């Protein structure tokens, strides 16, 4: 339960590489905020809002910064009573949860 509690209440404390926010400045001046889903020498697949993906070429990138912060708002649990937060953490920690994607 400690892992679930830490990741729910201090959700940006431990961020896995697959969930790092990437701020990518393209050579054309546009800025993309996304998580990286796949990366090769030829193409980077970005996870975009709404569940879509977008492919970009590494050669089109001017700069890239990884930020150890999740996209979930940090105050998400501030609106819930403590009892509901505890119930949510208990539920998320239960073995009835779906397995994590690999």
Description:
The structure is a single chain. With 102 residues, the protein is α+β, with helices and mostly antiparallel strands. It has 2 domains: 1-13 and 72-97, no CATH class; 21-67, SH3 type barrels. Helices cover 20% and strands 29% of the residues. It has 2 helices and 5 strands; from the N terminus they run H-E-E-E-E-E-H. The chain has helices at 2-9, 82-93, and strands at residues 21-26, 31-39, 44-47, 53-56, 61-67. It has a 5-stranded antiparallel beta sheet, with no helix packed on it. Helix 1 packs across helix 2. It starts with a helix and ends in a 9-residue tail after the last helix.
In short:
The protein is an alpha+beta fold and 102 residues long.
Q: Helicity level, as a percent range?
A: 10-25%
Arithmetic mean of pLDDT: 78
The CATH class of the largest domain turns out to be: Mainly Beta
Low-confidence stretches: none
The number of strands is 5
In angstroms, what is the radius of gyration?
17 Å
Query: Biggest sheet: strands side by side, in what order?
Result: 4-3-2-1-5
**Elements, N to C (H/E):** HEEEEEH
CATH fold name of the largest domain = SH3 type barrels
Q: Structural class, please?
A: alpha+beta
Number of helices: 2
Largest sheet: 5 strands, antiparallel
Shape: elongated
Give the percentage of residues in beta strands: 25-35%
Distance between the termini: 21 Å
Please name the CATH architecture of the largest domain. Roll
Estimate nothing, just give the exact number of structural domains.
2
